[in-house]
Write a structure and sequence with these properties.
alpha+beta; Thiol Ester Dehydrase, Chain A; 3 helices; 6 strands; about 30% strand
């Protein structure tokens, strides 16, 4: 279902259908939405973003991430942005920032400790990030101090650096963990 939603987003972003097709698609999306409204759940039970065995964790906002290697302090992944993430001739900068937030958050949360939240994220754009081309993301923990986790990451297309990021993620205190953190 999530994979089809991702494909639908790319098709919507990359098409200009005639009115009759747009109306038919709108009706079909409405029917799908009606089917899903019968099965509401709370944050702790939702599937979106929590299917860890899938490259996109069951959500369609970020591009799918394929883990190549990882340990407690390093993570290397591959990804490819679809047309849904396109700005004008390249990936939208906000989609790149979302990717870094996702990757750095995953690395910050590796291990048995409590989950973390983004305190700050700095993204430096070095060159255009291409749409529909393979990309490599490398992330590293640079420092752990108490609840604070400082991280860095790069996004490359081949040997070309597209963007780099630095972030601070802070582990949630046990008294702040609600049902969404389960």
């Amino acid at each position: 279902m999530v994979e089809q939603l991702r494909h639908l987003q790319d098709e919507v972003a990359g098409s200009a259908p005639p009115d009759d097709v747009a109306h038919a698609v709108t009706e079909l999306i409405g029917q799908a939405r009606t089917l899903l409204t019968r099965y509401p759940v709370g944050d702790a039970d939702q599937l979106f973003g929590r299917l860890l065995d899938l490259p996109e964790r069951g959500q369609s906002l970020s591009p799918p991430l394929h883990v190549l290697e990882y340990d407690q302090d390093r993570l290397t992944l591959t990804t490819m942005f679809g047309r849904f993430h396109s700005g004008i001739g390249a990936v939208h900068g906000g989609a790149v920032a979302l990717l870094f937030d996702d990757v750095l958050g995953r690395l910050a949360d590796l291990g048995d400790g409590p989950p973390s939240r983004t305190a700050w994220l700095r993204v430096d754009y070095r060159s255009l990030t291409p749409v529909q081309e393979p990309l490599t993301v490398r992330a590293t923990v640079t420092e752990r101090t108490g609840r604070k986790r400082f991280l860095e990451a790069t996004l490359c297309c081949g040997e070309r650096l597209c963007a780099q990021a630095q972030g601070l993620f802070v582990a949630v205190r046990p008294d702040q963990m609600g049902p969404a953190a389960d």
